[in-house]
Write a structure and sequence with these properties.
single chain, about 80 residues, mainly alpha, Phasin protein
Length: about 80
């Protein structure tokens, strides 16, 4: 049980660090005038979609581990896309 909680804490910490990288990258692009309207809209719409997916996962008996895994997958995709 303790190991499961430690793993969740570690994965959540990784999610926080990766999310901050995405936020920093997007804000830097906006500050330099390189941000697009599409990217700004994506910032909002992807959060709503991720929340809906997480809610559905929890409502159908999914675990917090699965929710964090889903969020990390989306955040890593953003990191790869924004670094191009």
């Amino acid at each position: 049980m303790l190991l499961s909680w430690m793993k969740l804490a570690m994965e959540t910490n990784r999610l926080a660090v990766e999310s901050q990288l995405v936020i920093w990258t997007r804000l830097t692009q906006i500050a330099y005038g390189q941000g697009t309207v599409a990217e700004s809209m994506l910032m909002v719409t992807e959060k709503v979609a991720a929340f809906a997916e997480a809610s559905a996962t929890m409502a159908t008996g999914g675990s917090p581990h699965k929710v964090v895994k889903g969020y990390r997958k989306r955040v890593r995709a953003n990191v790869r896309r924004l670094r191009r």
